[in-house]
Specification:
With 289 residues, the protein is an alpha/beta fold. It has one domain: Glycerol-3-phosphate (1)-acyltransferase. Helices cover 40% and strands 14% of the residues. The protein is built from eleven helices and ten strands. Strands 1-10-6-2-5-3-4 form a seven-stranded mixed β-sheet, sandwiched between helices. It has a three-stranded antiparallel β-sheet with strand order 7-8-9, with no helix packed on it. A hairpin with a 3-residue loop joins strand 8 and strand 9 (226-227). The longest helix is centred in the C-terminal third of the chain and has 22 residues, at 261-282. One of its GO terms (cellular component) is membrane.
Length: 289
């Protein structure tokens, strides 16, 4: 059978072409978009809204360095609506003050989501190495989610799993600028919808990795429409979100002048996994917490 005559393959190819055509229209993130005055105005109201919906429990903020640059490394949850992004923005900004430079690296799709105007004002920029270097050179706090789209769309059945997909670029970033890593562990995001599959094979077939830097085309069920179009906004279920910050890790102090990245990666993931497993053991019911 000629695959070119298959209507399903034809439809997927057409969809892939349309998605690839969107790429030039997506706006990039810019470190200059962060607006302390806007943050100061939005912070109280957003805390009330987010607090009522997700009942966030944020632990260990005292582990953040009092000053100077640091790299906050978190597991990613909850699809394009990733509740830990906004919650951590609110929590860290409240704790450190709006004037302390705090930025988050995110996929360009997030920077063009309905929450983008708020996220940009709070310091969300595109996950580009140049942005990461710029923030740390300025002495800012930088938050990264190494698992990216691969981890954020993992099936709900894997909600208790740290999965960075073997990505170690953040370790090279920390070593280059000699900054401590502060692990951030989140649970609850994969309960805001029913994530069924990453859809990696479909994304590969449509060549979305080349056009949109996407390695997944997720299949999920969410409110209010059930089956959700990939990367479309949805109404997240009011799942209780718990975030824990762990003691900072100074790579060269811990692993020597020339750390083995594989060892550092394995140790960090194992440490975060132990915490995530403990947080999962605390949960009594899905969504309720």
């Amino acid at each position: 059978m000629d695959l070119g005559d298959n209507p399903v393959v034809g439809a997927l190819s057409f969809a892939g072409d349309r998605l690839r055509r969107l790429a030039p229209r997506l706006r990039r993130g810019d470190v200059d978009d962060r607006d302390p005055d806007a943050i100061r105005e939005l912070l109280p109201g957003l805390w009330l809204l987010i607090g009522a919906w997700f009942r966030p429990d944020v632990r260990g903020l005292h582990h953040l360095p009092e000053d100077g640059p640091a790299l906050i490394v978190g597991n990613h949850t909850g699809g394009i609506m990733s509740p830990e992004v906004l919650i951590s923005q609110l929590a860290i900004t409240s704790y450190c003050g709006v004037e302390r430079p705090f930025y988050q690296l995110a996929h360009r799709m997030v920077l063009n989501s309905p929450l983008a105007p708020i996220l940009r004002r709070f310091g969300t920029v595109e996950a580009d190495p140049d942005n990461g270097h710029a923030v740390l050179e300025q002495g800012g706090l930088l938050q990264v989610f190494p698992g990216g789209d691969y981890e954020v769309y993992r099936p709900t059945s894997q909600s208790g799993l740290i999965d960075f997909g073997g990505r170690k670029g953040f370790l090279r970033l920390a070593l280059r600028h000699d900054v401590p890593i502060v692990p951030q562990v989140t649970i609850g995001g994969q309960e805001t919808a029913l994530f069924l599959s990453r859809g990696e094979k479909i994304a590969e077939f449509l060549r979305l990795d080349r056009a949109l830097r996407l390695k997944v085309l997720p299949v999920m069920l969410s409110a209010p429409f059930g089956i959700t179009v990939p990367f479309a906004p949805f109404l997240p279920l009011p799942s209780k979100i718990v975030i824990a910050y762990l003691p900072p890790i100074h790579l060269r102090e811990t692993y020597g002048d020339d750390p083995d990245l594989d060892r550092v990666y394995d140790d960090l993931v194992a440490t975060m996994q132990d915490v995530l497993s403990s947080l999962q053991a605390e949960r009594k019911l899905p969504v309720i917490g």
